[in-house]
Design a protein that fits this description.
By secondary structure, the protein is of the alpha+beta class. It is built from six helices and six strands; from the N terminus they run ααββααβαβαββ. The termini are far apart.
Length: 206
C-alpha cells in the first residue's frame, strides 16, 4: 500500500494530525451559497425578478372583432338570395377576434426580455408584488397626462400579460401592483417582481 507523506497530504488538503481544523470564513460562505442557490444562478433571491428596457411603454389595446369575409361569402352563397337566412347565418359566429399587432409585438418584446432575465428558473408560484415604472420621453418637470401617454391600468395590463407564465405561473398570484408613470430624458420600462409578504408596509388588514 502506498503511503502519503505529510507534504503530499498537505497539498491535497488532507489533515493527518487527527485534529479537526476549523473551516475558513471563505469556505463557510461558499457552502452557504451553494446550499441556497445553484452555482449558475446569479440572483440573490429566487423570488426576485427585474428588467429595465429602453423602450417606449405602450398601453394594451383592446382586442379587435371583425367580420370573417370568407364566412360572410359562404353565408351569402348558402342563403341563396334570402336576406333573412343570410342575416341569420352571418350572426352565427361569422366574426373573429384578434389582438392588435402593435400590442402583440410589444408584449412579445417584454416576454423575450423576461425569459432571458429568468434564465432557466421556473416561474414563481408564491404571492407576488409587482412594481412597474413607465418612463415616457418628456420634460421631467411635468407629468405624462396627455391622450398619447396611455392609461396606467392599460400600461400595466400589457406588462402583466407579457410576464404571465414566464415570471409567475399565473397572474392570479399577483396580490399587489405599484405603478408609476413619469417623464424622463429617455423612454424606459422598469419592472420588478418579488414575493409579497402580508407583514410588509402597505398591507393593512384593519
Amino acid at each position: 500500500m502506498a503511503r502519503l507523506s505529510t507534504a503530499d497530504a498537505r497539498r491535497l488538503g488532507i489533515n493527518l494530525s487527527g485534529n479537526k481544523s476549523k473551516p475558513s470564513a471563505s469556505a463557510k460562505t461558499s457552502r452557504t451559497k451553494c446550499s441556497r442557490l445553484p452555482a449558475n444562478d446569479t440572483q440573490t433571491d429566487p423570488c426576485e425578478f427585474h428588467i429595465d428596457l429602453p423602450h417606449d411603454p405602450k398601453p394594451k389595446e383592446r382586442p379587435r372583432t371583425v367580420l370573417d369575409l370568407g364566412a360572410v361569402s359562404s353565408a351569402f352563397v348558402q342563403a341563396k338570395g334570402n336576406l333573412n337566412a343570410f342575416l341569420e347565418l352571418v350572426g352565427k359566429g361569422r366574426s373573429r377576434t384578434y389582438t392588435p399587432k402593435s400590442t402583440a409585438e410589444y408584449e412579445k418584446l417584454i416576454s423575450v426580455a423576461a425569459a432571458s432575465a429568468m434564465k432557466s428558473r421556473r416561474p414563481m408560484e408564491c404571492a407576488i408584488s409587482v412594481e412597474m415604472t413607465f418612463i415616457l420621453k418628456g420634460d421631467p418637470e411635468t407629468w405624462p397626462i396627455s391622450n398619447k401617454s396611455g392609461d396606467i391600468d392599460n400600461l400595466s395590463k400589457a406588462v402583466l400579460d407579457a410576464l404571465n407564465g414566464i415570471v409567475f405561473i399565473d397572474d392570479r398570484l399577483v396580490v399587489e401592483t405599484i405603478c408609476r408613470k413619469t417623464h424622463g430624458e429617455r423612454s424606459r420600462l422598469k419592472v420588478r417582481a418579488s414575493e409579497a409578504r402580508p407583514t410588509q408596509p402597505g398591507f393593512e388588514t384593519s
